């Protein structure tokens, strides 16, 4: 008679791990698990003890880029030029662990590797690649990505920043807004409209006419530098132009890379909130017993576990598709839309479970909750991704206009 047992030659079921309920970790390769464990240890030892203070003080350590470079996560999914050349899935796993620490940490890595470095790697000249990529992979040089403007967010084609030819040079004028790493960056990848279409330019720190101003009074992504870039008659040689980028496809391809990392990162933030809520519920006593023993709290834990595991499985599936070369931008839009919304739901539920303690930085929940309010907006708002998915399902163009 069958006994219903599963798993293993001896018929015994594997032990249930509440922190990896569906044993998703078993689906990773040994290399991917090694990367997960190394990044998780870095976050546990070097980020979690301090990130609450960073968030409260709106600051990050000056040496953090070099520490991330030594960790090997900057541009890790790119080939050559000092980059590790890992799989897309391995990069995603790293993003998940980084954002389990803080969204600002994953944002720094994502902007560096998936926006600035990817732009140079995909669209740059050989000279640009050899000049910048090895230093950026090591964290010795920081990059930022200048696309969003004060009046041009979801519609980058309407950007007002312009570049005009002047002899052998280009002259850039305009402003970019909400730029992660902006004032820290040694080089800015700036996108501009020209008479020949959208073009990308590398603007080194200290170029005459190029200034940055940090954005203060943020209540989200506080452990992250966010800046305005100002370009006032910035003169650049033609060698500063990304030669292979000749349309809006250039910056949009970079955004797609960054959005992919967010799919994994949001799952990490959600997992961190679930773990905090589960630990709290097991020790917080009310009416003479831990609140984890009450039905309402168990229902909340089940609901959060469902969202976390579903988000992680979706991220893994999309990672395998990306490694196989079958991932489309529409798939990425679905992943970002689903996982960030799920993470927000988990964070808000966890905040309620922690009661008044949920609003303090002693626990990670409120920090993740406010950070996710930025994550749901940048790299395409939830509304924009919903239109992309809806249009694809309907078989018509997204209804942006």
TrEMBL record:
Molecular function in Gene Ontology: fatty-acyl-CoA binding; flavin adenine dinucleotide binding; glutaryl-CoA dehydrogenase activity
Domain Acyl-CoA oxidase/dehydrogenase middle: from-to ranges: 144-234
GO biological process: one example: fatty acid beta-oxidation using acyl-CoA dehydrogenase
A Pfam family per the record: Acyl-CoA_dh_1
Domain Acyl-CoA dehydrogenase/oxidase N-terminal span(s) in chain numbering: 29-140
Pathway(s) of this molecule: Amino-acid metabolism; lysine degradation; Amino-acid metabolism; tryptophan metabolism
Keyword Transit peptide attached: yes
Cofactor needs: FAD
Sorted UniProt keywords: FAD, Flavoprotein, Oxidoreductase, Transit peptide
Annotated Acyl-CoA dehydrogenase/oxidase C-terminal domain residues: 253-390
Enzyme class label: oxidoreductase
Reactions catalysed according to its record: glutaryl-CoA + oxidized [electron-transfer flavoprotein] + 2 H(+) = (2E)-butenoyl-CoA + reduced [electron-transfer flavoprotein] + CO2
SUPFAM superfamilies, per database record: Acyl-CoA dehydrogenase C-terminal domain-like (SSF47203), Acyl-CoA dehydrogenase NM domain-like (SSF56645)
Enzyme Commission identifier(s): 1.3.8.6
Entry's family note: Belongs to the acyl-CoA dehydrogenase family.
The protein's name in its UniProt record: glutaryl-CoA dehydrogenase (ETF)
């Amino acid at each position: 008679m069958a006994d219903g047992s599963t798993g293993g030659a001896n018929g015994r079921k594997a032990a249930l791990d509440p922190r990896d309920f569906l044993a998703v970790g078993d689906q990773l390769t040994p290399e991917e698990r090694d990367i997960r464990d190394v990044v998780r240890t870095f976050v546990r030892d070097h980020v979690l003890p301090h990130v609450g203070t960073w968030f409260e003080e709106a600051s990050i350590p000056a040496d953090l880029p070099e520490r991330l470079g030594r960790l090997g996560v900057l541009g890790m999914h790119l080939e050559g030029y000092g980059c590790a050349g890992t799989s897309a899935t391995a990069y995603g796993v790293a993003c998940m662990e980084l954002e389990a620490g803080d969204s600002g940490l994953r944002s720094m890595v994502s902007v560096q590797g998936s926006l600035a470095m990817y732009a140079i790697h995909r669209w740059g000249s050989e000279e640009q690649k050899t000049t910048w990529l090895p230093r950026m992979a090591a964290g010795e040089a920081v990059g930022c990505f200048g696309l969003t403007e004060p009046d041009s967010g979801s519609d980058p084609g309407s950007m007002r920043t312009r570049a005009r030819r002047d002899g052998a040079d280009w002259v850039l004028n305009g402003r970019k807004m909400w730029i992660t790493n902006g004032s820290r960056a040694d080089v800015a990848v700036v996108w501009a409209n020209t008479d020949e279409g959208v073009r990308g330019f590398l603007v080194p720190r200290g170029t005459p006419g190029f200034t940055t101003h940090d954005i203060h009074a943020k209540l989200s992504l506080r452990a992250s530098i966010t800046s305005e870039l100002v370009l006032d008659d910035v003169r650049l040689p033609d060698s500063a132009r990304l030669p292979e980028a000749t349309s809006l496809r250039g910056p949009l391809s970079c955004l797609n890379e960054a959005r992919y990392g967010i799919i994994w990162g949001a799952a990490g933030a959600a997992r961190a909130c679930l773990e905090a809520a589960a630990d709290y519920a097991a020790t917080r006593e009310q009416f003479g017993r831990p609140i984890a023993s009450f039905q309402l709290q168990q229902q909340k834990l089940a609901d959060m576990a469902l969202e976390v595991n579903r988000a992680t499985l979706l991220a893994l599936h999309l990672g395998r598709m990306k490694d196989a070369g079958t991932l489309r931008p529409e798939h990425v839009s679905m992943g970002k839309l689903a996982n960030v919304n799920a993470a927000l739901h988990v964070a808000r539920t966890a905040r309620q479970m922690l009661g008044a303690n949920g609003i303090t930085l002693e626990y990670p929940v409120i920090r993740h909750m406010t950070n996710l309010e930025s994550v749901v907006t940048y790299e395409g708002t939830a509304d924009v991704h919903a239109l992309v998915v809806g249009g694809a399902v309907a078989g018509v163009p997204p209804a942006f206009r």
